[in-house]
Amino acid sequence: MGQHPLVIVSNRGPIRFLQGADGGRVAKRGGGGLVTALSGVAQHQKVTWVAAALTDEDEAVAEEGAYTDGNLRLRLVALDREEYDRYYNVFANPTLWFIHHYLWGLAMEPDVDRNIRLAWETGYLPVNEHFAEAVADEVAALPDDSDPMVMVHDYQLFMVPQALRRRAPRALIQHFTHIPWPMPDYWRVLPNEIRTPIHESLLACDVIGLHTERYVRAFLHCVEEFTDGEVDFEHRTVRWRGREIRVRHYPISVDPAEFHRLAATPEVIAEEPGVLAARPEKMLLRVDRTDPSKNIVRGFRAYDLFFSQHPEWRGRVTMLALLDPSRPDIPEYAEYVGAIQRAAREVNDRWYQTGMWTPVDLRMSDNFPQAVAAYKHYDVLLVNAIFDGMNLIAKEAPLLNQRDGVLILSENAGAFEELAEWAICVNPFDIQQQADAIYQALTMHSQERKTRIEGIREHVQAHDIALWIDTQLDDLAALRPVEA
């Protein structure tokens, strides 16, 4: 497939540029799971990556043209900052994010007011157009006989496929959504003049990718509700305006070898004493961003209920909560951080007895080596998300764990579709069930613990990130006309 040009499009790029202390330019690896997942593609073939210029130095690079590094050509798109703020901080986050994760209660929020409409019209739409223009420029620069494959990623860029199809009709276009796809009724939060164009834009693709079969079904129901597309649920296709669109599930995964390498680095090893110092007999671990979708507060409440019902465990287990601060500029996220801190303090105030034991060890920082160190040493891993596109922590942590740790997994995490057989599965809203799951995990027989974690490891090793990428590229390549 290396002979076919590949263009990746995402909000964040694989490299971000900063100005060093000496005034020179410093290139650093971009953050986020998407960048981690896709960066490996450039090791095997030439890739053009189009992303937003997010720093002052990024903008300087954008003005100079494209940045190249081996097989990677990085095209950064300079954007008006107010336009970007409306696109990202008002419409994509929290509006689309909250819809996709069912985070609004609807009785009191949201109000679809002028602010949201303005963010759509003067933020989200123009930014998506700018992305499409940049991608079309890159496609136009390719040889005339090439068949470019364009992979557009995530909810920030729903309107790129349609805008790109107008400009580059010969391109094969895929869009992949890395978060859950909600059912039609929840999309009705948005007015028809917003929700229908989003779905119609995605139908400009050749392939639409989601993480699970559940999300595929939800997407097809939405297409049936909001467009005039002809949906075939059996074959997971849509006929729309003379074209056939394939809707497929590709569960994202991790690189097991990379995580084993990380586990042996000095940075991770240096964090282990600090992790181990916190544990009494057992450790209950959660590693999350401070996002409302992660259900951190209910997790603390379930843990609190567990102590009420099983007082013999007081002093014997600590919950280590390693939380990465997320989107602090968005009010809903800042408020949720306060709720997390209050909930943790309530548990500690209720059950703290001596200086030798802290029920909840809450650590809020961006410290990935610490998280990897903690993966090695948990007895129970809590993943109780309200909704989650996949949740790679459920796949990463068991690979490295040295204590046959038990996974407690939300039935609304994308990983549930793959890992339910080996996890203790819970309803994320049912704190009694989660409290019971904590007790079950802590008292589980050693052989059952071993069987469960080995099942997860074998599955993740057989369904790794390379398979995720290769399957998508194969499906796109199969759509090319057969040469005579």
Summarize the structure.
By secondary structure, this protein is α/β, with parallel strands linked by helices. The chain folds into 2 domains: 6-253 and 467-477, Rossmann fold; 256-463, Glycogen Phosphorylase B (Rossmann fold). The protein has helices spanning 33-39, 56-64, 81-100, 114-140, 160-167, 184-187, 192-202, 213-226, 256-263, 266-276, 296-309, 331-351, 368-375, 393-400, 416-419, 431-442, 446-462, 465-477, and strands spanning 6-9, 15-19, 25-29, 47-52, 67-69, 72-77, 149-153, 172-176, 207-210, 230-232, 237-240, 243-249, 282-289, 317-324, 360-364, 380-383, 406-410, 424-426.
Measured distance between first and last alpha carbons:
19 Å
Largest sheet: 10 strands, mixed
List low-pLDDT spans: none
Compute the CA-based radius of gyration: 23 Å
Apparent shape: globular
Averaging pLDDT over every residue, what do you get?
Answer: 94
CATH architecture of the largest domain: 3-Layer(aba) Sandwich
CATH domain class name of the largest domain:
Alpha Beta
Question: Any descriptors?
Answer:
484 residues; alpha/beta; Rossmann fold; 10-stranded mixed sheet; 6-stranded parallel sheet; 18 helices
Which helices and strands, and how do they pair?
Layout: E1 6-9, E2 15-19, E3 25-29, H1 33-39, E4 47-52, H2 56-64, E5 67-69, E6 72-77, H3 81-100, H4 114-140, E7 149-153, H5 160-167, E8 172-176, H6 184-187, H7 192-202, E9 207-210, H8 213-226, E10 230-232, E11 237-240, E12 243-249, H9 256-263, H10 266-276, E13 282-289, H11 296-309, E14 317-324, H12 331-351, E15 360-364, H13 368-375, E16 380-383, H14 393-400, E17 406-410, H15 416-419, E18 424-426, H16 431-442, H17 446-462, H18 465-477
Parallel strand pairs: 1-4, 1-7, 4-6, 7-8, 8-9, 9-12, 13-14, 13-16, 14-15, 16-17, 17-18
Antiparallel strand pairs: 2-3, 5-6, 10-11, 11-12
Helix pairs in contact: 3-4, 4-5, 10-13, 11-12, 11-16
